[in-house]
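Saturday, quiet lab. Running sequence design on the C-alpha cells for the scaffold JK sent over.
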C-alpha cells in the first residue's frame, strides 16, 4: 500500500497541477495547515530534477506569503483564530511565556525555528502577536525558508537517481522516521514554549 501511495505521489509530482499544489501547501503550512511542504517538494524534485530550484523558489515564496498571513493572524486575530490554531498545537497555555521569550529573542527564534521541523505557523502567529517588526520578520522568513527549501532542492538535484533509489528501497523505514520526526516537532513545540 505504501508503495502505491509513493507511486501516486511521484505521478502527481510530475503532473501539470503539481506546482500550484506545492504553492498552496507551502502557503497554508506557514499559517495553519499541519503538513509540511516537503512532502510535495521532495517527490517533485525527484520527478523533475531540472526544475528542482524552481520548485524551491515556489516553496519559499509561497511559504513567506503564508507566513505573512500567520503574522496577520497573530497581530489582528490572536484572540479568535490565533488562539484556536495555537490550541491545536498545544500552545495556548504557554503562549504568554512564549511572548516574553519572543520579545527578547524574536529574530533568533524565527531564524532557528524556520529551519527545523517545528511547525512554522507557531512562529508566524507568535511573531504577529508579539508585534515583532514585520520587515525583519519577512527578511528572516525569506532567509530561513529559502535556506531550507533550496538546500533540499540542491541535494535532490545533485544526488537525483541515487536518492530516489535509496528512498524506494527503504520507503517503509523512511516513512516511519519521517513520522517520528514530525511527531517530535509537535512535541518540541509543546515542551519548548
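Result came back. Writing it out in full:
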Amino acid at each position: 500500500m505504501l508503495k502505491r501511495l509513493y507511486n501516486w505521489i511521484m505521478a502527481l509530482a510530475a503532473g501539470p497541477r503539481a506546482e500550484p499544489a506545492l504553492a498552496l501547501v507551502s502557503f497554508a503550512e506557514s499559517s495553519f495547515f499541519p503538513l509540511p511542504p516537503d512532502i510535495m517538494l521532495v517527490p517533485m524534485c525527484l520527478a523533475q530534477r531540472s526544475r528542482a530550484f524552481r520548485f524551491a523558489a515556489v516553496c519559499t515564496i509561497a511559504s513567506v506569503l503564508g507566513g505573512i498571513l500567520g503574522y496577520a493572524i497573530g497581530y489582528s486575530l490572536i484572540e479568535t483564530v490565533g488562539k484556536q490554531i495555537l490550541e491545536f498545537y498545544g500552545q495556548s497555555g504557554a503562549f504568554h511565556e512564549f511572548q516574553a521569550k519572543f520579545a527578547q529573542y524574536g529574530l533568533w527564534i524565527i531564524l532557528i525555528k524556520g529551519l527545523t521541523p517545528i511547525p512554522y505557523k507557531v512562529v508566524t502567529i507568535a511573531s504577529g502577536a508579539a508585534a515583532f517588526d514585520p520587515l525583519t520578520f519577512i527578511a528572516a522568513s525569506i532567509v530561513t525558508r529559502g535556506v531550507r527549501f533550496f538546500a533540499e532542492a540542491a541535494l535532490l538535484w545533485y544526488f537525483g537517481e541515487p536518492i530516489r533509489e535509496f528512498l524506494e528501497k527503504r520507503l517503509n523505514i523512511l516513512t516511519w522516521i519521517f513520522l517520528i520526526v514530525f511527531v517530535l516537532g509537535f512535541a518540541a513545540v509543546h515542551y519548548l514554549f
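Notes for JK: Residues 134-169 form the longest helix (36 residues). The chain is about 80% helix and 0% strand. Ask whether to fix the surface positions before the next round.
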